[in-house]
Structures are given as C-alpha cells and as structure tokens.
UniProtKB/TrEMBL annotation:
Residues 156-237 form the HTH araC/xylS-type domain. This is Transcriptional regulator, AraC family protein. Keywords: DNA-binding, Transcription, Transcription regulation. InterPro entries: AraC_XylS_family_regulators, Homeodomain-like_sf, HTH_AraC.
Amino acid sequence: MVQGIWTAQVPDEKGRTVVKPLYSDAGSGIIFNLGCNISIGDENLPSGVFLLPVKKVAQSISLPASAKIAGIRFHPAAGYGVLGDKPSKPILLERDDTFASGLYHLFDELKHQTQSEQQIKLIFDWCIANLATESLIPTPLEKAFSAILCGAAPGQLSEETKLSQRQIERLFNTWLGMTPKHYQRIQRVRQVIQTVRERGDIDLAELAVEFGFSDQAHMTREFKSIAATTPGKFMSSE
C-alpha cells in the first residue's frame, strides 16, 4: 500500500532554491506543503494538501529557502485504490471534503512539529489508523506487476493473470493510466537507478546486459526518455 513516508525542508540560511529530480516509479502520493509556495514541473503548489498524480516521466521539484514539505508515497495502483481518483496534475484538496478533513487535521499537526522524526511518526500513525491493511489492488494486476519485475514481457502477462491482452491493457489504464509496456519501461529504468545507487561506479555496458537492454545505447535512450537524463550523468550526480 504505502512504499514511503518522507519529510524535507530547506533551511532559511541557504537563501537559494533547491531543485531535485523526481524519478517516475508509476506510483502516486500525497504531499503536505507546510510552508511557502513550491513547484513540481510546471505546477505551482501553495500551502496545503495535494494529491500527486502518476507520472510517466521524471519531473523536477523546486524548493525555495524555508520550504517545508512531507508526504506519503503509494505503491503503483495503490493510490487509485485508496483515493478513487487518478488526477493528471497535482490537485489541492479542500478542507471541507470528507476524506481531506482528516488529512488537514494531520497537516495542522505537522505544521506544529519541527522535528522530522516526529513528523514521520505522525504520518505513520495516520496511515495505520486510516488506510486499509489489505491490498486494494486487483489480484490480476498484482500478478502482472510481479511478472514484469521478474522479467516477463508485456505480451506474456495473459498466462500469469488468466486475462486476455485487452483486459490487461484496460486494467493498467484504469488503475495507472498507462500501458503495461510503459509500466515495464519505468520499472526497468527504476531498477537501473537503484543498482547505480547501491553499487556506485559501474560499467554501463554490463548494466545494460544485466537488465535486458539490447545494448548500452538502447539503455541510454530508455533512461533518458523516462528519467530525463542519461545513465552517465545520473551516475556522476550521485
């Protein structure tokens, strides 16, 4: 259901805007903007609680000095199961909305906490109290996710899910807003990112072979398409 709980802030003394990449993981989330205006991609986010959409490619988040944010990151498709919505851009929730009222109570508590550890605990406790412990994702979709992570091609999912290819495509579109092929592309690039972070300096040609790309050039094209940078530049930035 929840793959991560996080907080971040930019000290006043930095006096400059911090820009960081947000790499796509096919998940969605909730962000609490506890301070000044921030931006994600081309969207300006004032103080408040926002639903974050599933993004097919990387975006940048811009945090000015004194920015304070926190959030919940859902596993792929879990956000749709929890929220019943699949926004195409960040959506500011209204305080009088039934679901949002609890989130704004949490928002107010977070604003009064200065320690990130306490903010994490507040969000964790809210998740335990308000989110279902059982999976809300359809079993065939979970099986498709697992098969793709194990190396299955999008055209091989019918055997795992007992659904036709058309039914699988419809399931992915309903819950994620993308095709199984694009989901596979995102997850493969994400695996490359995680591997580079874990191993550090690594031969890119070997990495391409390890994750099933036809060659290093193929991996570079896919990486740039999804992560908006090249594997070499990403490795240098880590």
